[in-house]
Amino acid sequence: MKVLITGGAGFIGSHTADALLAAGHSVRALDILDPQIHGEARQRPAYLAPEVELQVGDVCNPDDVASALDGVDAVYHLAALTGVGQSMYDMTHYARVNAIGTTTLIEGIVKGGHALKRLVLSSSRAIYGEGSYVCPTHGEQFPVPRSRERLESGRFTMPCPVCGGDLDAVPTTEHKRSEPFSVYAITKKHQEDFVRYAAETFGLPAVILRYFNVFGSRQSLKNPYTGVVSIFYSRICAGQPISVYEGGLPVRDFVHVSDVVAANMRALVADVPSGSTFNVGAGVASTIGDIANALARAVGKPVTMEDRGEFRVGDIFGCVADLTRSRAELGYAPACSLDQGMAEFAGWASGQPSEDRYQQTVAELSRFGLFGRAKGG
């Protein structure tokens, strides 16, 4: 097939292109080459396979989209802005790229009469908001987001709505109600809603993949707003301490890009109903301390972690993927462990220029009241 990848010059898109080429497909990438990721020169990245036909353009521009769709059989829609913190104050930009970019793509497919074999949307676990929780006494619970007052008091755990005790994070299924908390999460839900609408209304054969915390080679080492692994790497290499937010208690599901690509490839050919949604994660809960220590082992340098009671407004406490449906229906089976993934990332990053721009993010978030510290922290 001839496959279009929007955002195809980026981190996940370029790895997906490699896999598609290896499988015998031809690949076109539509990418704006965002300076925040690719640098002010906006040059074709060296890691992008030469066989990829790169079309520099805007997914929000109907003419660029129409040109990119010409002659393609399938589309991966990966083009999106991804920084949770940045989204909280850069709302218009995120809404335009993520939501309007998706409707522009769908309109291009429908109005252009393109009979696609598959559209794969890269969504996010962020649409869940908080993940699933259980109370040891009162069972399954769906707590509301933590108040700023609670965070400022240093109570970071999720409280049971019934008894007020600490809740335990458990794997989150695709059936959990969507309760997006950040602007980024809201725009990802909009993407899903638009794609499901197109699937139901126009018969567009779509599959939605909810990526969890993706990491690996080709992740931007210069963009301070996305990818905690990249931020930690720059701090460790600079000999700077890592600030552990919320006492290091929050849990996430870090999945290596190789496993995400495997899910992407399965989604292209899987015999599943249009509009099907699947979690793509490792299915393993990791704390921020786990991530920092695994990266330090891979780099071979010590890491110093500082707990100053810091937190970011817009962050959730925990979300880990339940992969039951993905395994059964998509045939997805993550194969890369955290240590293996960190070794792959560190091996690649060691040959790349990186910048420690952590303080820049703190300054920006603080400017808009989105960065806080517990009293006494």
From TrEMBL:
<feature type="domain" description="NAD-dependent epimerase/dehydratase">
    <location>
        <begin position="3"/>
        <end position="141"/>
    </location>
</feature>
<comment type="pathway">
    <text>Carbohydrate metabolism; galactose metabolism.</text>
</comment>
<comment type="similarity">
    <text>Belongs to the NAD(P)-dependent epimerase/dehydratase family.</text>
</comment>
<dbReference type="Pfam" id="PF01370">
    <property type="entry name" value="Epimerase"/>
</dbReference>
<dbReference type="InterPro" id="IPR001509">
    <property type="entry name" value="Epimerase_deHydtase"/>
</dbReference>
<protein>
    <recommendedName>
        <fullName>UDP-glucose 4-epimerase</fullName>
    </recommendedName>
</protein>
<feature type="domain" description="NAD-dependent epimerase/dehydratase">
    <location>
        <begin position="168"/>
        <end position="281"/>
    </location>
</feature>
<dbReference type="InterPro" id="IPR036291">
    <property type="entry name" value="NAD(P)-bd_dom_sf"/>
</dbReference>
<dbReference type="GO" id="GO:0033499">
    <property type="term" value="P:galactose catabolic process via UDP-galactose, Leloir pathway"/>
</dbReference>
